[in-house]
Structure to design on (123 residues):
């Protein structure tokens, strides 16, 4: 990880962003999925290859991160590391809440089927 002493921004290679996420929530289900949403070109040069980078919404959150089109890494402006960590924690909470809701609803359906004596299946 390379940091800018002036703005507090950080350059992370892909593996470093993955390590940052994993150090926040070590759950492969939470960390699965697309990281980059709604990418748009910007005029910031990649510090590795010099090509113009793009900005994107990190994991569909209102958190814009800059990425290299050649896959060299990501630029996080000052303070975005903590926002990345919070986005990962929120994703974990959301997935847990969804799983809990599915379990609860599944139990409700089973109970209703039992009360109906199995009638209404497949309708």
């Amino acid at each position: 990880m390379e940091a800018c002493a002036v703005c507090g921004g950080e350059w992370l290679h892909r593996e470093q962003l993955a390590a940052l996420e994993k150090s926040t929530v070590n759950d492969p289900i939470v960390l699965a999925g697309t990281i980059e949403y709604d990418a748009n070109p910007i005029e910031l040069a990649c510090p590795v290859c010099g090509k113009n980078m793009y900005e994107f919404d990190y994991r569909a959150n209102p958190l814009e991160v800059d990425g290299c089109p050649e896959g060299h890494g990501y630029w996080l402006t000052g303070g975005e590391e903590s926002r990345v960590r919070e986005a990962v924690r929120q994703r974990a909470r959301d997935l847990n809440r969804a799983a809990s809701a599915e379990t609860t609803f599944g139990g409700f359906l089973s109970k209703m089927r039992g009360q109906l004596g199995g009638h209404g299946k497949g309708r």
Summary: The chain has one domain: 2-115. The beta strands are 2-3, 10-12, 36-45, 52-58, 64-67, 74-76. The first strand starts at residue 2 and ends at 3.
